[in-house]
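Hey, resending since the last one bounced:
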Amino acid sequence: MAGSGVWISDYNDLFLFAPPAPLTSLSAEHIWRMIEVRWAAALHGVATFVAVEGLIALAPFMLIGWWRHRQHPLLRGFTILAIAIHVVMIVVFPLQGSRGGLFHAIAGLFPFWMALGVLGLNVAVDWAAARRRAWHAEEAKLIFSIAALALGAGISLDVALSSGPGNNLEQTSLYAGLRAALPVDAKLMINDPARLYYHLGLGGVAIPNESIAIVPLIAKRYDVEYLVLEHVDARGRIGSAPAAFQFDVKVPPSFLRALAFDARSDVRLFQIVTD
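The structure tokens again:
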């Protein structure tokens, strides 16, 4: 159903095989949940504006710079776009926005915000220098500009280092193992089919937020031959699958045939048997 993603109240419902309930069937509980989701998205939007767009320290100066120069022709389109992006990613698509949609959408705003941050910083320094005779405005602008640049570089470096090589090593071993175990034209059901295609060029579909019993139907419709489960713990819980899809991996249903996969101990590989 076109636009059905607007009405979901849980992120995993984006991966329903059947479309979510239409607006006419929404209950009061579901409506309240949608309000909660948008409130959480609004808080996330504010945090993103301050920490990501404003690099924490520049956020108030960006607003000062925007307000001072808001009538400039170059800022009219920027203002409309900035408001539209945040409204859409908070009100219309709150779950998608909170899971990375807003982060990626604001990339085009970043150069404008940085320029406005510098302009706003200059305005603030001039205002303070006019009230404090000991301040030398030009020296203060240089010091604060260097400090802001150092802070931005430090935050970026910290984020880059905190990601670490661990996840990359996990993904490398996963795809190397899949390349060795599967045919070159295999189609998979996996947690992240886009990343699968990027690394191996293989087609696939996402693990649905449905019972495992729906796998044969999806496999037949999209010619999917294999199921990959990542982050399976000692209790058999599938960390990369939604709650509705959980099943006992030690005793899989008859349409799943377990295949050996030694590249990672927390990965299970199954062949989907639909005949």
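Strands lie at 187-190, 203-206, 226-229, 256-259, 268-272.

Sorry for the duplicate.
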